[in-house]
Amino acid sequence: MANLRLALLAAAALLLSPAFAAAQLRTDYYATICPNLEAIVRGSVKYSMGQSPISAPAALRLFFHDCAVRGCDASIMIVNSNGDDEWRHPDDQSLKQEGFQTILDAKAAVDSDPQCRHKVSCADILALAARESVSQSGGPSYPVELGRYDGKISTKNSVVLPHADFNLDQLNGFFSGLGLSQTDMIALSGGHTMGAADCSFFQYRIGTDPSMDPNFAAQLGGTCVNSQSFAFLDGSTPVKFDNAYYKNLQAGRGLLGSDQVLHADVRSRGTVDYYAYDQGTFFYDFANAMTRLGRVGVKTAADGEIRRDCRFPN
Ligand code: HEM
């Protein structure tokens, strides 16, 4: 009897573990269900990127914020009528509308194919749109594991995200909670090779942070003139996915404290220097880290669904 209980407990633990949930993911998951899926999402993201230069960085960030909270289950997309949902949490308020719109448009494009209608999860569309945002901006194209189900729950109090003033230990603590290594974290931070940040996230560093290049500080000081002001995370090539982010860090031109600390702290500097030197290794590690991020907290048919409208549980 005790043995049976032990066996049942072991089976239950296996079912709950991320490794087991991830086991259902396959790159060819929709091969027969929706054979044109990847081409449809590719075309839709291309259209969104043509509509706005913010779409690609916004969609990439949305994927990170989705996976980091309750796993990659599109819970970030849910709109609850009582106002208690992830996207209304202060840490998600800077997510740009263009990112959400990119996903809604891609879902509409997928559902306009009769073979695919209501068969592809919003969580998988997010993962594909993130990849497209990267590859169509000049970054790596990598196979995306698919087969996630959409979550049914989104609440404000489940939101825990890293902050722009985190030090290396805090960053590592957060990412290890997702099962990701320091190398994964440094590679994923390279997502800051695209997009922008509001002054509220970095203004406190200007003139006070010795790791910031003084010329860069002077330049930023002139940028932050009102509450709408922002700066590009990678000032040299803001719409291109490349390794300029790491070169900026070497020059003390990282925008966020959590960016610059990766070079300021000797424990992570070697990896930053390597990515600055070898873009190919950065692309390779970024693709692998995105794949691992995409396995976090994946839902199955038992605890998820294929949402018809990404904004509302069925
Ligand atoms: C390491 C911890 C991280 C911190 C502290 C952090 C923090 C931030 C902050 C404060 C912004 C500015 C938001 C705004 O003002 O609109 C931002 C933007 C952005 N983040 Fe992160 N982030 C982190 C990791 C990541 C990861 C892992 C990715 C994706 C792989 C990512 C992708 C982006 C992108 C693309 C933007 C630009 C968004 C836009 O232009 O709309 N970030 N991040």
Task: Describe the protein.
Substrate binds at residue 162. Ca(2+) 2 binds at residues 193, 234, 237, 242. Removal of H(2)O(2), oxidation of toxic reductants, biosynthesis and degradation of lignin, suberization, auxin catabolism, response to environmental stresses such as wounding, pathogen attack and oxidative stress. It is an enzyme of class 1 (oxidoreductase). Helix content is 47%, strand content 2%. It has helices spanning 2-16, 18-23, 37-51, 55-68, 97-111, 122-135, 168-177, 182-189, 214-223, 244-250, 257-264, 266-277, 279-293; strands spanning 196-198, 230-232. With 314 residues, it is mainly alpha-helical. It folds into two domains: 19-161, Peroxidase, domain 1 (Orthogonal Bundle); 168-292, Orthogonal Bundle (Peroxidase, domain 2), CATH 1.10.420. Bound molecules: protoporphyrin IX containing FE. The site of protoporphyrin IX containing FE has 26 residues, from α4, α8 and β1.
What's a concise summary of this model?
Heme b binds at residue 192. The chain is mostly helical.
Topology:
Layout lengths: L1 H15 L1 H6 L13 H15 L3 H14 L28 H15 L10 H14 L32 H10 L4 H8 L6 E3 L15 H10 L6 E3 L11 H7 L6 H8 L1 H12 L1 H15 L21
Antiparallel strand pairs: 1-2
Helix pairs in contact: 3-5, 3-6, 4-5, 4-6, 5-6, 8-12, 8-13, 10-12, 11-12, 12-13
The structure holds protoporphyrin IX containing FE.
